[in-house]
Structure formats: structure tokens, C-alpha cells
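Request: When convenient, would you put together a sequence paired with its C-alpha cells?
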Amino acid sequence: QRSIVSLFRIGLGPLIGIAVIEVTPNIRLAMVGLAIGPTVAMFVAVVISYRYGVWSLRARLNPWAGRHLVRRAIPFAVIVGASAALARFDVLILSAISTKTATADYNLALRAVEALQYPLWAMLGPALYLFSKRLAQRDIEGTVRAYQVVSKAFYAISLPLAAGMVVLGHQVILVIFGQAYSGAGTPLVILSAGLWLTYVIGLVGMLVTSFPHMRPVVIMIVLVDSAAILVQMPFIFRWGAIGASIGLLLGQFLTALVQILFVRRTLHVWLPVQPPWRLVVSALACGAVAWGLRSVSLPLAIAAGGVTFLALAVTTRGFTRAEVQSFASL
């Protein structure tokens, strides 16, 4: 049920915005569409809450509970606000030192990669619930097991996406956006190579935000996001949009490393973050098939690559029926 609400909240608004843009070039109507997703998600959440007896739909003023909730929400607001501001800093710097075309190409590559992260954002809300529930019970082993199950599903999604976009990124840009945005192809390929790492960072980020003491978490996230921007800056000044993509990829490696060390220091466990080799091999085969068919047909290359990954992952037991059932049960 939480996944359904997340899907509405994250996906419906952009889909409506895209549909509006296809019909009319009015950007204001498209922006209005972005607000529809969260609004519909709120009504869906209310219906689900009422159906399962969580909320009777009666409301009353409770200042103490309100202050408590606001105080508990402040760390999350700081994390989201700081991360959102720093996430656009590279585009701001690039726009100041480079051409409008280079900035538009890089921004398009960023948005394309973010679109591929949609399954990640849809499942992070439920993941936060899974981790916080176990950590509140001081069940470290259960938390790690839940992380392993969810991370396996994330790898099964992100590895073939990364492999496919690395070999087909240029063609995807040309087919969807045209020759005018051909410069976005190389940044998209570079950023796609780290797509699986973005999923890891998102999942570990949900784990650390589930910790009972949020002050160290907030400090760590703000500092590591700032450090990632500093790592990216020399590459932006030297190579423009392509350098920004390389710097962002290096910043992601830094972020993942710091997160893992933070979890180790706090929970005294090492998270298993290396991708399962069977899924890696399946993803490489997916990319190879897509590469071989890219000159024939883009849809055929995408479909054949996906089928290849799924077939190899199943035959090599990259994921098993028991693991799928474990993920569903969570």
C-alpha cells in the first residue's frame, strides 16, 4: 500500500506534465500538473488509512502532538533541502562558465538519468519503514537482512538499466529529443554507468535516516554532499558538461564510501554493497545484445537486451523464487 502511494506521489505529476506538453506548449499548465500527483497520493493515502482502520477521518487539534511531529520532521527537512540545493549547484556553475547549449545538454542528461531512478524513489518510502521498524527494536541483524533483500531487487533493476543506457544512450537522445540535443548523449552515457551506484546510495541513505539519533546523520549527509560538489568543480571548469558528468560519478563513489563507513561506525556491521556477480554478468550480456542490435532497431535492442538479462538472471539463479517471495513479503 505504501508503494502505491509512492507511485502516485512521484510518478503521476510528471506523467501529467508530459501529457500536457505533448498537447500544448503551455509550461504553466504542465507545472500545475506536477502538483496533481502529490494531491492524488494524499487522497489515496487517506482512503487506505481509513480502510485499514489507521485513521477514522476525524480530526482534532493537538498542539503537543503537532510540536512533536514538527520537531521530528526538522532533520528530514534539512536533509532534503540541503540535498536539493546542492544537487543543482553543478548546473548553476556550468551555466555560468559554459554555453547555453552545453548547460541544456547536461541538464537533459541529468533529467534522463533521474527518470531511470523512478523505481528507486517509489520504493524508498517503504524501505524507510522497514529499516526504522527494525532499528527501533534494536534488531541489527534483521535490518541487515532486510537491506540485503531490497538491495538485491535494486541491483536487478539498476544493472540492466545502466548497461542498456551505456550502449544506447546516444540513440535514445537522438530518437526522443532530436539532433539538436545530440550533445547530451555522452554525459548521459557517463551518468548511466553509475546508475546502479545511485540506487545503492539511495537505499543506504534510507537506512541511515532510519537511525534513532538524526543529528550525526544530518551532519554526515550535508558534509558529504558538499564534498561531492567540491570534487565535481575542477572537472566542470576543465571539461564542461562531460567533466561535470565525470565529477558527479566520482562524487557518487565518495558518497557511497562515506555512507558505508558511517553505517559501520554506528551499527558495527559491514553492509554487503558489491553487486551479485550473476546479475553483473547478466547485465553485461544485456548490454552486449543491445549493442549488437542498436543499428537494426532501438526498440528491438531494448527488448532483446531486457529479455537476455531476465533469461540469464533466472538460469544462473541471479535471483531465485525464494528471494522474490522474501522481497514481496517485506
Q: What stands out?
A: The chain has a mean pLDDT of 88.
